[in-house]
Design brief:
The protein has 273 residues and is of the alpha/beta class. It is 37% helix and 18% strand. The strands form 2 sheets. A 6-stranded mixed beta sheet has the order 2-1-3-5-6-4, with helices on both faces.
């Protein structure tokens, strides 16, 4: 017997107070006439295992954000091929046998955001990409990039060994860059760190980028992130992570309920105060 659709949906992260996911998902649930509620839970790392176990027992489902995506991957008994490729889970639910299943819809979110950034029906070929970060979000970016035609990526991380380990997982199209200055000549620079989420720090000096480079910041804030503002002030095309947030959320909604949500409703809710 199949489990009924979840009535409780949660976002697990630390911190999560900034997240727009609850308002976005609750608007989509209401528009679809689905009886469920979505809430954000701030889960300290030491409480992660016990809280996930309790949620699994009640048949909940949800999303995962920093810093728990790799922990959730380890907690899942089954997962999608793309989650396995990324090594991180951002969308989860309880399977028929009571174990956890996971997916990674961040990859689809990255693809949609980059396509829109280039204002194209498909992602252009031969892109040279610079990537800041080497955690679960960065792995989703590399997994997405793996399907782009003839793309290459250079990965820079504060801890160089993590950038090297990430690139080794994906093959020769991904190369570590121990010096961030090696990213100055890329077509697209992606920030997959948390820099700028809670302060005005920027992860890279945009003045060193080419004048035709584009910038994609996975971080999002109620106003443009400091990194996006700096890039736009330089005249560069730049977007924050809101478009990715909406698309990955819509794909997660489809996983939980088997129907597509109203993406326009989700976007309006995510943009509202």
């Amino acid at each position: 017997m199949r489990r009924p659709p979840p009535e409780r949906l949660v976002l697990l992260g630390h911190p999560v107070a900034h997240s727009r996911s609850p308002q976005m998902h609750n608007a989509a649930l209401a528009a679809a006439g689905i009886r469920a509620r979505y809430e954000a839970l701030d889960v300290a790392p030491e409480d992660f295992d016990s809280i996930v176990a309790a949620l699994a027992r009640e048949g909940a489902a949800g999303n995962v954000t920093i810093p728990h995506k790799e922990r959730m991957y380890a907690a899942c008994a089954t997962m999608s091929p793309i989650a396995r490729r990324v090594g991180a889970v951002n969308t989860w639910w309880v399977a028929e046998d009571g174990t956890l299943s996971g997916d990674n819809t961040d990859v689809g979110g990255v693809n949609e955001a980059v396509r829109r950034l280039f204002d194209a029906k498909a992602i252009p070929p031969n892109l040279k990409v610079g990537l800041l970060g080497a955690g679960g979000a960065a792995a989703a970016v590399v997994a997405a990039l793996e399907s782009w035609p003839s793309a290459t990526v250079r990965v820079h991380n504060r801890t160089a060994s993590r950038a090297h380990a990430l690139c080794e997982r994906f093959g020769s199209f991904a190369q570590p860059a121990d010096d961030a200055r090696a990213l100055a000549d890329v077509d697209l620079l992606v920030n997959a760190t948390s820099t700028g989420m809670r302060d005005d720090a920027t992860p890279f000096d945009v003045s060193t980028l080419r004048s035709d480079a584009r910038v994609f910041d996975l971080v999002y804030r109620r106003e443009a992130t400091p990194f996006v503002r700096a890039a736009r002030a330089r005249g560069l095309a730049a977007v924050d992570g809101l478009g990715m947030l909406v698309e990955q959320a819509a794909l997660a909604f489809e996983r939980w309920f088997g129907v597509a949500p109203d993406r326009a409703t989700m976007r309006r809710a995510a943009e509202s105060d």
